[in-house]
Amino acid sequence: MALEIERRFLVRGSEWRRHILWEARLEQGYLVATADGLTVRVRRASGAVPGAWLTLKARAPQGAGSAGERLQGLGPDGLVRQEFQYPIPPGDAGALLALAPQQLSKWRYGLDLPGGDWVLDVFEGENAPLVVAEVEFELASLPSEMVPGEGLPLERPPWCVLELTGRHELSNAALARCPLARWPEAQRRALLEAAG
Q1: Total-model pTM
Q2: Per-block average pLDDT, block size 10, for the chain (196 residues)?
Q3: Are strands 51-59 and 80-87 parallel, antiparallel or unpaired?
Q4: Exposed (0-12), middle (13-18) or buried (19+): which is 196, by Cβ within 10 Å?
């Protein structure tokens, strides 16, 4: 079992552009997306990291001594999830995308920032002009003595203006189901004003 340990942030401005290492265009379709966080996603990428993947995500396991349990108190809900990702042929990805009832597209940029594996997503279509940065942590790189409730150590860039970790309405699966353009006007405006 693989664990995804990730924090997400709303981005303001374009200062992040000076940190770009690579870029890729992503098309994502959700074959399954349940209220309890289980998703089955197909992704096709072109650009610097071309390929296609089938990904299953679910809540982290609960149980005595599990790595997911150790990390639950270290940050917001949604910080730790199970993730299983498998490469698939591009033709299969195209066929699965055609079956996916909920989809989105975005440009992804790899960034040269410390503290984890940083990427930034610039959403297209009905989710524009949303820009979200994510930092993924390796379980092996986290200190074993971390105290629950104290959060993961991170030097956050100033253009990461609002933490979105645990904001389920801003997960990719939720944005595919209910894009930003379909949000109530006041809710959409409040989010976009935070991004300046």
Answers
A1: 0.87
A2: 87 97 98 92 94 94 53 56 95 98 98 95 98 86 46 84 94 96 96 90
A3: antiparallel
A4: exposed
